[in-house]
Amino acid sequence: MLSRKQKLFFLKLLSLFSVxxxxxxxxxxxxxxxxxxxxxxxxxxxxNVVFDPNLFVIVLASAAVIAAGYIxxxxxxxxxxxxxxxxxxxxxxxxxxxxKLTGYFLLNFLSVVLASYVSFRAVLFFSVYIFxxxxxxxxLKKYPLxxxxxxxxxxxxxxxxxxxxxxxxxxxxxVHAAFLFLMLIIREMVKDLTNLIGDMAQNYQTIxxxxxxxxxxxxxxxxxxxxxxxxxxxxxxxxxxxxxxxFYGCILLLFLFLVALWISKDKKYYVWLHNIIKLIIxxxxxxxxxxxxxxxxxxxxx
Length: 302
Known about the structure:
Blueprint: H1 4-19, H2 22-40, H3 46-50, H4 53-76, H5 78-84, H6 86-92, H7 97-118, H8 120-138, H9 146-166, H10 171-194, H11 196-201, H12 207-211, H13 213-236, H14 244-263, H15 267-287, H16 293-301
């Protein structure tokens, strides 16, 4: 049997994992490696990508900045989250604000130190990334559309770091990025619908608060229609292997999403919609391997 002190220690660890969204960070790390292997550096041997020390440092620095970003976002949103997600907020509060802020500064400092191993440009890149996350959490997230777009940019930035490292400028990469970017904006806008009550209470000027739920739904509908364009290009113009199965699945899910969006009236339905978009994004991470399954064996032997 664990003692009371040991139980409290494990609860605080769980709280810290919840604050930094450890599960999200693990998915992002995996997505960065899969993107590097199958999209940005398909010409390199598998082990040369997976065991590249510079890539490892970039991914680790990204993870540190993202974790710090979740901490500062949690710090600024504590009152709103208490309304929107009371159970998670109570768990998060097991770790003191002082501990969270200390972790925030330490993680950011660690990311800059790690980036210095790669190059001075990497230090500048991650310094700007850190500032951008703080600016979003402190100011920009309270403004309609600007906050949504900026959040999507910040979410795609870790992949941009890998893109800069490999300097691969093929068109198909930008088409993949366009689809992901649109999904991320949609996710942020659905999140605003989910958090409507807390946003109104804390005077966050999101699209549903300022212009109403129907306007928000119209904008999400337009974004979904726009996302069909990169999907069409990927299915017709580029070689994506068995990943076509993922995009056909996306078309079906997005159609069901649109139907559900317009009949949804309260938070529990918006949470389901948010989960559908998250499923599309996470499934996209794992489906990257479908681009060329046979390439894995060839590159292991090569």
